[in-house]
Write a structure and sequence with these properties.
The complex is a heterodimer of chains A (about 260) and B (about 575). Chain A is an alpha+beta fold. Chain A is built from 10 helices and 9 strands. Chain A has helices spanning about 1-15, 25-40, 65-85, 85-90, 115-125, 130-135, 145-150, 160-175, 180-185, 210-230, and strands at about 45-50, 50-55, 95-105, 110-115, 135-140, 190-195, 200-205, 240, 250-255. In chain A, α2 (about 25-40) runs antiparallel to α3 and α8 (about 160-175) packs across α10. The longest helix of chain A has 22 residues, at about 210-230. In chain B, α7 links the parallel β3 and β4 (about 190-195). Classes of the chains: A alpha+beta (about 260), B alpha/beta (about 575). The interface of A and B includes residues 10, 14 and 22 of A.
Chain lengths: ~260, ~575
């Protein structure tokens, strides 16, 4: 009798484990509902190909109150950790998740990009915590570009993701290292596009100093090589940095 | 109701574990279903590894715990016998009618103990089956198990013996605990201990205060059978042993423990006939089989040995590609069982001839001089170290030997020596075993049975040798030699007179190597000597003796009736006188 009960229960939960929690047909609605349950925040979710966009509004995003910033970051962290569950437990083929937190008062935007493959690797301990933290992609945008970015949603490719990651890592490095920031005069790199396996980057202002160019080139070269090897993106031929007038500042051929 | 109660008492632990397991599985299934599919898949993928790790831990830690704390070395194997599977009835047990009658009585009492209790009597606590090996003690126990239809626990005495001290007593406690449980649920229980002499021998106590390990086992058995707490439980212990009563401890044999002792002896002539018929009935056998002859040729054989003979005969028959077992196969089987395999000794012609005359001497001595024995077989084929032998058995079942029979035994033993002496003027070393046998019989006649002629009566072996005078020893030895010489002279006289028969027998044995009783008898008949009674004559003798017995019975009844009538008449006269 006991054997029959055990077999029955085993068959129930094996069968129940066959279905996905977030089917692709109702993905967006489920995502909105889940985030509302978990974080009590209203969000908008959009899916473009294999990219899932999530827009959330924070009215106090621009503040110098440390407690508010901390609370916002906690909520954002919760949103990110909730939303990354969705592609893992769904039959929709989602590779990237983009969480956009914007402040409508100041039209500022913080975007967090999550690579679903990286999340799986980290969950299954294929990559270390340090490696995973190096793959964090954050972008900050000001009022001039926020509206365009929010409205312009599309399916992100892996090359674009890697290119954005390179830029994000470099910008983070500059932000966090005051000496570097002083040296490069608080320059900010931007992602432009990926075309014919060539990374096109732009810079926030013109560079006069050759030393700065040299440093930037060196940093970019290192970062490109590291990330290309990490993601095995060996088709990339080169990376080109242009200025505001679209002049090429330098070009880095990629040799792996 | 009691069964249900006992079931819960015995299995509460298992039931609790089972219930908890079911609850855990249900909870696990429910919670797993509530997880996201990714987490669920991850969990399910890791379950086999968890199960493997759990199993390894269980084997190493839980298994060791179960072994050491749930019985360990003193754990008893499951030994409850299912009576329906044993299926041996009293009708399948042949022979020892008295023992069967006792056993049937015990079974009746066990089945309906209320009758005994009404009178105020007590149930039999223990029954001891004693007898030589292969007589049917275990078979009788099986029959009791089948007929009683009670729970029956079987265990061998050797199962109580273990390397570690105290394990035997522990096993006895466990056995009786199991028996008490069965008695509680079923009414009563039978415990059968085979070969009880392993633990039932007289207890030994050393001066140091200790004793053998079996002492503690036996003490526990004594206490369980009739100790302080053993009242009111319907447990009957049946034990079987080959040993004598004297070997077993007196405390075990006292009333209240093994108060019934059933002797299971070797079968009588009639019983052997029945046993042969029973086993021959199980195989294909021919019509020429003389069961009476077989029975008379297997004196002192146990039923197991008789079964072995029949089995061996079937194998011999199969080997010879026969369709059924005949008398020849049975005869060969008896030779095989009694003397072992035929050995292939290459004898010279002279050796063979000497052996033939030697055996012929024995055969003629048996035939003409022995009052009770008849020849079963005479052969010069070597078996078990002997170059030849004459196999002779008493015609009927005898339990005592008189002087004439013992003298005849000596004469038969000397027959071979005399034949060799007459034929060749010399003898061989082949007479050594015959002399040993003859000397021992003659010696026991004088020293043990007072059968000498000089008036020395008594068992002189009871006197210690150093208390006996050398004169008395000499006298007794002289008397022994006198017997030997007297017998020798008689045999010499007989064989010289009937030398023609010896010659014929010897030549026939050289030709055929083996002679059956019929062939031997034929030679004697040819020379005008016949001693063997035919089957017809046997049956008529038996019939006449049965007839005599029935006639005697009728006469006795008649006499009793006459006496009753006379008594009535006497009473009537007395009554008249009083009036």
């Amino acid at each position: 009798m006991l054997k029959k009960i055990v077999c029955f229960l085993l068959s129930i939960f094996i069968l129940s484990s066959c279905g996905v929690t977030f089917p692709k047909e109702t993905l967006e609605q489920d995502a909105v509902k889940l985030i509302k349950e978990e974080t009590q925040k209203d969000t908008s979710v959009y899916r473009y190909g294999s990219t899932l966009y999530l827009d959330v509004c924070f009215e106090d995003l621009v503040t110098n109150d440390a407690r508010k910033i901390s609370a916002i970051y906690d909520t954002l962290q919760k949103i990110v950790s909730t939303v990354v569950r969705i592609p893992l437990s769904s039959d929709a083929d989602i590779k990237f998740v983009v969480v956009s937190a914007f402040d409508p008062n100041y039209q500022t935007l913080l975007r967090l990009f999550e690579n679903v493959d990286d999340i799986k690797k980290y969950a299954n301990q294929y990559i270390s915590r340090e490696d995973y933290s190096e793959r964090q992609l954050m972008e900050f945008e000001g009022p001039d570009r926020t509206k365009g970015i929010i409205e312009n949603k599309y399916d992100i490719t892996e090359e674009e993701y890697v290119a954005r990651l390179i830029i994000s890592q470099l910008n983070n490095g500059v932000r966090t290292n005051p000496f570097l920031a002083k040296l490069v005069q608080a320059l900010e790199l931007r992602f432009s596009r990926v075309e014919n396996n060539i990374f096109y980057f732009a810079i926030s202002k013109n560079i006069d100093n050759e030393e700065v160019k040299k440093i930037l080139k060196m940093m970019l070269e290192t970062e490109i090589l590291k990330d290309i090897q990490k993601y095995k993106l060996f088709s990339v031929k080169s990376a080109i940095l242009r200025d505001e007038e679209n002049n090429i500042i330098f070009s880095i051929p990629v040799k792996v | 109701m009691r069964k249900i109660k006992m079931f819960f008492m015995d299995n509460w632990g298992k039931m609790t574990i089972a219930l908890l397991t079911v609850l855990l599985i249900v909870a696990f299934a429910y919670l797993l279903m509530r997880l996201d599919s990714y987490a669920r898949s991850t969990m399910l993928a890791s379950i086999p590894m968890y199960i493997l790790m759990g199993a390894i831990q269980a084997i190493v830690f839980v298994g060791a715990y179960m072994f050491f704390f749930s019985g360990g070395f003193s754990k008893l194997k499951k030994n409850k016998v299912n009576s329906s599977k044993v299926n041996v009835k009293f009708t399948d047990v042949i022979g020892f009618e008295n023992a069967k009658k006792e056993a049937m009585e015990v079974v009746d009492i066990i089945k309906d103990s209320s009758r005994v209790k009404k009178i105020g009597g007590k149930l039999v606590k223990g029954i001891l089956l004693m007898g030589p090996p292969g007589c049917g003690k275990t078979l009788l126990a099986k029959a009791i198990a089948t007929e009683a239809k009670m729970p029956f626990i079987s265990i061998a005495g050797s199962e109580f013996v273990e390397v570690f001290v105290g394990v035997g007593a522990s096993r006895v406690r466990k056995l009786f605990k199991q028996a008490r449980k069965l008695a509680y649920t079923e009414g009563s229980c039978i415990v059968f201990i085979d070969e009880i002499d392993v633990i039932g021998r007289g207890r030994t106590f050393s001066y140091m205060g200790g004793g053998e390990e079996t002492n503690s086992t036996q003490n526990q058995l004594l206490v369980e059978m009739d100790g302080l707490e053993s009242t009111g439980q319907n447990i009957i212990v049946i034990a079987a042993t080959n040993a004598n009563e004297g070997v077993l401890d007196k405390a075990l044999l006292r009333p209240g423990r093994f108060d019934r002792k059933i002797q299971i002896t070797l079968p009588t002539l009639e019983e052997r006939e029945d046993i042969f018929k029973y086993y021959l009935g199980k195989i294909k056998s021919g019509d020429d089989i003389n069961v009476r002859k077989l029975a008379s040729g297997t004196k002192f054989k146990s039923p197991a040995e008789i079964e072995n003979i029949v089995k061996e005969a079937a194998l011999i028959s199969t080997r010879n590609k026969k369709q059924f077992v005949d008398m020849e196969d049975l005869s060969l089987a008896m030779d095989r069982v009694n003397l072992g395999l035929e050995t292939s000794l290459t004898m010279t012609k002279e050796e063979k001839e000497m052996t033939a005359y030697h055996e012929a001497g024995h055969a003629v001595a048996v035939y003409l001089l022995h009052p009770t024995d008849e020849i079963f077989k005479a052969t010069i084929r070597s078996r078990g170290g002997a170059l030849g032998f004459v196999y002779h058995t008493p015609k009927e079942e005898l339990h005592n030997q008189n002087r004439e029979q013992m003298l005849a035994t000596v004469m038969v033993a000397l027959g071979g020596y005399v034949a060799e002496k007459i034929k060749y003027g010399t003898t061989s070393t082949g007479v050594s075993s015959d002399f040993r046998h003859a000397m021992s019989v003659a010696n026991s006649m004088v020293w043990n049975f007072g059968m000498g002629t000089r008036g020395f009566v008594g068992d002189f072996t009871a006197i210690p040798k150093d208390c006996m005078s050398s004169k008395l020893k000499e006298e007794l030895n002289t008397e022994t030699m006198e017997i030997m010489n007297t017998c020798l002279n008689k045999v010499n006289e007989c064989l010289t007179k009937e030398w023609a028969i010896v010659e014929d027998l010897a030549q026939e044995m050289l030709k055929k190597e083996e002679l059956t009783y019929a062939e031997v008898d034929q030679i004697f008949v040819k020379h005008g000597k016949s001693k063997v009674i035919s089957d017809k004559e046997y049956i008529s003798i038996k019939d006449s003796s049965d007839k005599e017995k029935s006639e005697n019975k009728a006469e006795i009844q008649k006499a009793e009736e006459i006496i009753k009538e006379e008594q009535k008449e006497v009473k009537a006269e007395e009554a008249k006188k009083q009036d």
